């Protein structure tokens, strides 16, 4: 039996162990007799037990993220000793920068491993090209090279003087660009010059890269990798391709043709990228049945803002029937309504009735601290404007109740199952979905800029290198179920500012994301998914005076600027 060693480097900026890494190690176990796990970030005992208890790994090293992957691999080799490494049939270096195996990896692995014409091999390569990574230095030419996320060396290489010389002399470089230039892009040529033959599963050097912004197929052409059934897909490809029209198709293809849990991609990217990229959304819809579910053990606190006593009565009925066990905090806009609420509803669930004289969202922010001790909270609004169409508002209220209250126990179960779930929101409401008539005096870009400004004021990082999300998840009235810790930044918003509540409506998703939580959408059972073409939106265009040509122009300019930024960012900084 062959004796193959895998040296696997892990890093997570949040000092966590992602599920896709555990899955990857489980699947790689069949290809390697020994796996040594090196973590460049802290791993707590609970996470480590997930690897050691089922014996997924045979050794573990905890180190600081100094020198990145190459210094980590070098440290592991020195700990083993090069004499001991020479006894293995192969030594493979790998890191956790990929999802997979998405397709079968055992067959191509065994094919490359048994080919006597190959001394070391990888999965993908990149062609020689010129870069100028530092402004104060001349441009340099990077040679053809195997990309270092997976490289396997056979025993004849591992036993060589060249192997020990290369890996024992790795310096701890803290500039990632310098690491890439000094080691990753130079490694292939170094070993080829020492007389060894290399190969890759997908040789990209002569492939046509028309339409790609950079000729790195592992990052900028996921469809070509799927076409060739390449088992590992770079995480960075989903970051750079977040807005590509083909990325939703990539996810769909993986679901249809591969045997990889797409949820591992969506869950990881939701926390490392914006959580509402278009390719993620299908996986974030929840459909609930009428199946009976046992009552939750979570403590539930609810805020209900009341301006309509009739609607308030409806909400109380729904709370009692579907939520069942809860504490209720009511805000209202007048002393007269407060008195009527207290007289008509002497319920033990009601902990307080407060007159705020404010709107629903501002009132919620005012009493937010009262809800922070609960496991889970809800925010609902029983108000009906005298100037609005009553039929539309009735439809709106009904959709919220059907999406968030009827399936309340099933929703609570989702929170119990997923500790990273911070919000469950409504699907688009029936009327707005059918007629796209959500009035906003600002364009999407202008609204996004206001969200960025508000986000910075409450320590929510938005609009940095991630650009503008294409998916505009609108929360009508901010009615949601949420974990208090997911939205704790809300208390920092100045509730005296009444003029910009729509920005608060839309930023709550990003507040949850910035605190390390994901979201889900409860599917609206009334939504018949009518799609109305722009040309037929007469009512919308008349009432809102939307200039679609201007919107298209802004979108085009934004996309061009984003593409130029990506080229400069990738080609000249070479950031991992």
CATH topology of the largest domain: Spore Coat Polysaccharide Biosynthesis Protein SpsA, Chain A
The count of helical stretches stands at 23
**Gap between N and C termini, in Å?**
37 Å
The fourth-level CATH homologous superfamily of the largest domain is Spore Coat Polysaccharide Biosynthesis Protein SpsA, Chain A
Instruction: Provide the structure class.
Output: alpha/beta
Oligomer: single chain
Mean pLDDT equals 86
Assign a percent range to the helix content. 40-55%
Q: List the domain count as a whole number.
A: 2
What is the number of E strands?
20
Please report which band the strand proportion falls in: under 5%, 5-15%, 15-25%, 25-35%, 35-45% or over 45%: 15-25%
Shape: elongated
Give the radius of gyration.
28 Å
CATH architecture of the largest domain: Alpha-Beta Complex
Low-confidence stretches: 529-552, 571-576
CATH class of the largest domain: Alpha Beta
Biggest sheet layout? 8 strands, mixed
Structure report:
With 576 residues, the chain is an alpha/beta fold. Helices cover 41% and strands 16% of the residues. The protein has two domains: 4-207, Spore Coat Polysaccharide Biosynthesis Protein SpsA, Chain A (Alpha-Beta Complex); 286-544, Spore Coat Polysaccharide Biosynthesis Protein SpsA, Chain A (Alpha-Beta Complex). Strands 1, 2, 3, 4, 6, 9, 10 and 11 form an eight-stranded mixed β-sheet that branches. Helix 20 (444-457) packs across helix 21. The radius of gyration is 28 Å and the shape is elongated. The two termini are 37 Å apart. Residues 529-552 and 571-576 have low confidence and may be disordered.
